[in-house]
């Protein structure tokens, strides 16, 4: 047998080599793409799970497991008019004051884990017996206690206030040492000349209300109320229409005068009310308490906790005062590494 002889599988090997040379591996799928494909594939199940989570977080639907977010111990109540322009149009400066005050309280609440509820004061609520302009504090406190059923302390702040020392918590400032930080009787300071003694007052009772006094008497621009049966009774009697209708023509400062009347006549109210020095939570700017402008116990000094620009809307410049204290707070807490 003459001539060349080729193996029958040579061509097959060559073809196999060609296939190996042209083989392309599968493209890698990213994690995001894989996740998206799974969501699309099981979209009904994903939608169902999202619905369950939303119902668990934001509703009280029965028979569903509910995710509980811990309730804050302290709730800040800020009276504002975020809607604006229902009773009258606000000026740009009024908008600026409101934004500054709200941002200040939001930052403080977030820093210390407190609750914050902003109550719209645009329209005064009408009650069956009377218009009660300026009496919303009492009703709003009741609303807030229902809104935060597990909270212990409720801190009311008027709009024209600014927290100057945001790094200090209320617990650190005075709540953890409440009995030593406050005074219970009027011998120490009594600008209204109220009776200092009432029979049957037990000052060993717990403190459920913390307020301040200024040159004109009780000041409710910044005060605290603790949740208790006593505070529920106080809010009910404070809000009582019979007393209001008999006395409202004599009460220049309305809800403040009503509280002063209750304090001066009711032993059970007096025994659970305590006072902080004004500058502890309610320092005044120069211009307030003008008749006692030389008395330092009323007026803000550097590193006081809160400034209350009380009465600025009556002949003073609310916007100018707010901008001043904002800048001062920033200056007092400027980081060492910042040069501007």
UniProtKB/TrEMBL annotation:
Xref: Pfam families? Glyco_transf_34
GO terms (BP aspect): protein N-linked glycosylation
**GO CC terms in record:** Golgi membrane
Q: Name one GO molecular function term.
A: glycosyltransferase activity
Swiss-Prot/TrEMBL keywords: Glycosyltransferase, Membrane, Transferase, Transmembrane, Transmembrane helix
- What InterPro entries does UniProt report for this protein, alphabetically? Glyco_trans_34, Nucleotide-diphossugar_trans
Give the transmembrane ranges: 45-64
Per the record, the coiled-coil ranges are none
- Entries under Gene3D superfamilies matching the protein: Spore Coat Polysaccharide Biosynthesis Protein SpsA, Chain A
PANTHER family, alphabetized:
ALPHA-1,6-MANNOSYLTRANSFERASE MNN10-RELATED (PTHR31306:SF5), ALPHA-1,6-MANNOSYLTRANSFERASE MNN11-RELATED (PTHR31306)
Please state which protein family the record places this protein in.
Belongs to the glycosyltransferase 34 family.
Q: What is this protein called?
A: MNN10
Organism equals Candida oxycetoniae
